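One-letter codes give the sequence; the fold follows as tokens. Both lines appear below.
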Amino acid sequence: MASSNPSSVNIKAGLLVFAAVIAAGTLIYTQSIVHRLIQREANIAHLYARSLQYLASDQSSPQDYSFIFDDVLSSIDFPMILTDSHNQPYQPYDRNIRNIDLDTTKTLRQQHDYLMRLIKKMDEQYPPIKVSVNTVVLNYVHYGESDLVTQLRYVPYVEFAVAALFILISYFAFSYLKRSEQSNIWVGMSRETAHQLGTPLSSLMGWTELLKSDMDNSRKSEILSDIEQDLNRLSKVTMRFSRIGSLPELRKVHVAEIIDNVFAYFGKRIPQTGKKVSLVLTGDRSPCVRLNPELFEWVLENLIKNSLDAIEDKEGSITIHISKEDRFVNIDVSDTGKGINMKFRRDVFRPGYSTKKRGWGLGLSLAKRIVESYHGGEIFLKDSKTGKGSTFRIKLRSVDCNPEA
């Protein structure tokens, strides 16, 4: 069974750790707010109890302190019940409760029972506050959580649920995209294999039929030479596919020599397409790079094939320009085709992406993998204008052309 891509596993693990850190931070921060609000409500409840205690111990007229209750009561936004020394609610009930919906259509007994149940529930959350004068208990203040505190308690769980749903959806979307990409790669590889093998095999079958017919020895020698070229092509295709997935051997070569070989291959096949397309090599022929010739030829062939498909007119040109920039060699492949919208400059290298009805969108993806993963270089769409053509740039590190010791 194939092992998972380490980078993919690391990304998933990193996302999970990041989500866990955010969730933990959110929980801690929310709970901190909840604790501060609870403390605030407890302080208000104690202030109310102390106000009652102060009034009970002072002989002045109660109306002199009415402003205290106005300020204190206005700040109470949580449920509170005032009871007597026996923990029984005062009547009338509606005047001795705060932020509690009491059904006044019920009987007094039913209202009493309802308040007693609330008192029991409140006391389980927070201990009641005694109002006493000279050790004599006069009242108890019972209070509970406000709606805001209750809602804040559930905020982390709601956030966790939303985050979990988001991660789950993202995971399935990511998995689907990976499976779709892998499927495109496998389909593309199989079709690319058939395409690569199809041309030389068709030629060999044709040469075989010609050899069966009567012809002079000079013609047979020419055919045998063509057969040898096709067999070499088959060997090269086999070598290319065998190099995928393994570390290829790199050697120092002149870039221009590789381009000349590719041009020679296409020079015989372009006339068969019914187009008159010229292949031009310009720039500096001297730079050397370290690469695998078989794989790099494959890159250039894919770029040239795309350029040929992009040239919709009967005539056109494909130009490869070599230039040296600091420690790098730039190889620009330009055509006079229909061009590519620059907003798709990243998508063109994605497996499965293709603007051709008969394409399968693997050529540029393979080229990118060969250039970047195997040769440590860079390939990108440098420039493109609709109706005027495109230019792809390959950037490789330059090396000294002197023979190695």
